[in-house]
Specification:
Shape: elongated
Strand content: under 5%
Helix content: over 70%
Length: 187
């Protein structure tokens, strides 16, 4: 529970967990006020655009984390193997070894997908592009790099869903370990 004067980052963190637990559609104002410790007036003062602005800012916060910790390092890396290892470590950390769902993926599957389509598309497109560029620099053809980057995102997202469905974080960790081996494997 946040104090009335809680910092915006703390409020966004609390909001992200409400959206993860209940989806955009199920995140009621009651759940949001309970999680943030802020009253309706304070919430609307911070987010005059209401729940849509709250979700937009949460998605922007996630995007910022991924830009800093995943996309930019992939784009800037000189050593593909180290960059992929860092990406895998970052993904494992962010998703709590498969115990934390992908909020962007949740939004993509829900009724709010159209509302946030630009943010959802950008998240996946930029990740795919950064990883494909890295794989190209490692010597793969454009087609191979594109397919492996897509396979990586499919593996990560699918492993998150299956780990959550089976309540087994080991599924996610094994998928990431196997992915590391596959991404730079010789053709």
């Amino acid at each position: 529970m946040l104090k009335k004067g809680g910092e915006r980052k703390e409020v966004l963190r609390a909001l992200s967990e409400v959206f993860r637990a209940h989806g955009y559609e199920g995140a009621s104002l009651t759940l949001i006020t309970e999680a943030t410790g802020l009253g309706k007036g304070s919430l609307y003062h911070l987010f005059p655009g209401g729940k849509e602005q709250m979700a937009s800012e949460v998605l922007a916060e996630i995007d910022g984390w991924f830009e800093l910790n995943i996309y930019a390092p992939l784009r800037d890396a000189d050593d593909p193997a180290r960059a992929i290892a860092a990406m895998i470590a970052g993904v494992e950390q962010y998703f709590h070894s498969g115990n934390r769902i992908c909020l962007v993926g949740l939004v993509a599957l829900g009724a709010a997908r159209d509302t946030f389509s630009d943010a959802v598309d950008s998240y996946f497109a930029r990740w795919h592009a950064a990883l494909a560029q890295l794989l190209r620099r490692s010597g793969l053809s454009k087609g191979q790099a594109q397919r492996r980057a897509e396979d990586a995102l499919l593996t990560i997202q699918g492993a998150l869903v299956l780990a959550r469905a089976r309540n087994d974080g080991g599924i996610f960790r094994r998928a990431l370990s196997d992915l590391t081996k596959r991404l730079l494997a010789a053709e």
